[in-house]
Amino acid sequence: MPETFRASEAVELAHYVRGDFIESRHVGSAVVLDPNGETLVQLGNVTAPVYARSTVKPFQAIAAMELHVPLRGPQVALAAASHCGSQEHQDVVRGMLAQAGLSPEDLRCPVDYPEDEATRDEAIRSGLGRTRLAFNCSGKHAAFLWACTENGWDTETYLDPSHPVQQRVARVIAEYTQETPSTWSVDGCGAPVPAVSLRGLATAFSTLAQSRLDLSKNARAMTVATAMLDYPWAVHGHGLPNTLVMEDLEVLAKLGAEGLLVLAAPDGTSVALKMLDGSSRATTLVGLSLLASVGAITHEQAGGVLSQVLRPIMGGDKPVGSLRLAEPVADLLA
């Protein structure tokens, strides 16, 4: 059976500390690449396959644009988003579908309640309940559907791996990761998901980040990277980790399910990491610390964002602990 890296190939990246006691250990792998693709930091196995999950959404958006989808402004960011389902997000996605001549009923992603608390409460109070628009991948799915209507393709089967939309997505992912996925499966939203390496993901995001400042790079990549930073609320949600990283640091940030995070600084220095247990609670701490360890951002910049992202570990109504870097990462900052 194909598999990702094993625990014996991983390293400790972060600790969950209650009082003076390490209660839990987050183990995983991480890589930092310089703008030329050279390895600056390697922790654990970074060439083993991982399902890329939502970290490939920017490249799925590029594929949609290559298929003549006329995304503009926040629509671009929503096509690359794992959004929290706020009314603001849902309105943009609804507008994308309307421009494609479609409706929310044409989406094939699952139904869900919004993650955004106020919007969720209103959905429950009004009796609206779970909807496809509220699902965190609805923007990506709307872009897929729009590609279908722009090209006269079937909208019922747009998630099939043999569909022209998914064939273009596969080519774009291979181009940017510089890898042929070792296997494919079905993501939580129903779309095909590739297995590539952390190094491949870091390579892809390095190219994406550099496209903003280099006119010789792909114009669609430049559009996606610029939109993510111009509309960071659309990529995640107001006050949420990916959005805060992009707002405060102009660092591209994209989470993925099962403990994935990829970051890329404006110069193309990039980080890709996976927590082996699938937890995301320490990914931003580790990712920003790794960027700071190689000088892509300052320690102060990393600390400013982390002070907004990290929550203390509580004992009753009093803080009694915190997430902390494990030695392999902390030693890089010394």
UniProtKB/TrEMBL annotation:
Organism: Falsarthrobacter nasiphocae
Stored InterPro entries: Asparaginase_II (IPR010349), Beta-lactam/transpept-like (IPR012338)
Protein name: L-asparaginase II
